[in-house]
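Retry 2 of 3 after timeout on previous attempt. Resubmitting structure tokens to design endpoint.
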């Protein structure tokens, strides 16, 4: 049987690993959004005269931005899918670990009564 202190340490390690996976996924999402924004601004500057003075983001710009986000996400779908699956597995493992801990606590209370 795992001691309560060891359980807490193991759970903390699992949660830290999950947070790192989530952070990595967030980094990729921010990279994609930033690149799509740069691509949209570059394209907008090429299409419009006086591109630097055009400060408003139009509906057409938003559609183009979303298109670039989709294209860039598709290009990195393998990495995104792998991280998403890993995150799902980590969430499941943590939930099961917590459930087993609650079950063993209840069992210990019954046998100790």
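Retry 2 succeeded. Sequence:
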């Amino acid at each position: 049987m795992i001691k309560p202190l060891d359980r807490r340490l193991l759970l903390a390690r699992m949660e830290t690993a999950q947070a790192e996976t989530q952070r990595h996924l967030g980094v990729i999402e921010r990279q994609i959004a930033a690149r799509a924004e740069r691509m949209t601004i570059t394209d907008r500057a090429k299409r419009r005269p006086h591109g630097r003075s055009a400060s408003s983001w139009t509906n057409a710009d938003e559609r183009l931005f979303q298109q670039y986000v989709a294209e860039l996400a598709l290009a990195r779908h393998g990495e995104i899918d792998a991280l998403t699956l890993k995150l799902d597995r980590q969430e499941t493992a943590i939930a099961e670990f917590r459930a087993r801990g609650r079950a063993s606590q209840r069992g210990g209370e019954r046998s100790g009564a």
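Attempt log closed. The mean pLDDT is 89.
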